[in-house]
Design goal:
It contains seven helices and five strands. The protein is α+β, with helices and mostly antiparallel strands. α1 packs across α7. It comes from Marasmius oreades (fairy-ring Marasmius). This is DUF302 domain-containing protein.
Length: 174
């Protein structure tokens, strides 16, 4: 048996939004929009779900008409502060929705898209503490490796739009 290494060129697009809102305000808005508490309950109940219908009903209950739920989060500044006490807030949120992902991670499309499902948001406090950046890789720039594939590209571009709507909503200064 042999091992073959292949390097596939990929041109990713990193989207960055800047806001004067504090990172705590942005995080609060994100966690409200993705129903952090309900998402955590969903993740712990997932092993006991026994049917597609039950799965989808549970997801609809968590998302409450929104596009995304929390899959995982991590605060990097909680450990980086031990190396540099001036570390700004740095948080990563993996957000998604299995009912959206099912269209992208399918044997009818490129299963390698699963590598970037769920999408991630980076919440980064500006170094001068005057606001926050929210960054993410544009899904359509990192998921389609086989060129234009019709329905798949349309589904990924729809995800681009949903993600952008969320980021605009949580970074908008009232």
């Amino acid at each position: 048996m042999s091992v073959v290494k292949t390097v596939i060129p990929l041109t990713a697009q990193l989207v960055q939004y800047a806001t004067t809102l504090s990172p705590q305000q942005v995080i609060s808005r994100i966690e409200d929009r993705i129903n952090r508490e309900g998402s955590m309950k969903f993740m712990s109940s997932l092993p006991s779900i026994t049917s597609r219908e039950e799965l989808e009903e549970t997801i609809r209950g968590v998302t409450q008409g929104n596009d995304f739920m929390l899959m995982q989060s991590m605060r990097h500044d909680n450990w980086l502060k031990f190396y540099d006490e001036k570390t700004p807030l740095v948080a990563v949120y993996s957000i998604g929705n299995p009912m959206i992902a099912k269209h992208l991670v399918s044997s009818t499309f490129d299963l390698r898209a699963a590598y970037n499902i769920p999408p991630r948001l980076l919440i980064l406090e500006k170094e001068d503490r005057t606001g926050t950046y929210v960054l993410y890789y544009l899904p359509s720039s990192v998921m389609s490796l086989n060129g234009d594939e019709g329905n798949f590209v349309a589904a990924v571009r729809a995800l681009d739009e949903k993600l952008e709507r969320l980021v605009i909503e949580v970074t908008k200064v009232d």
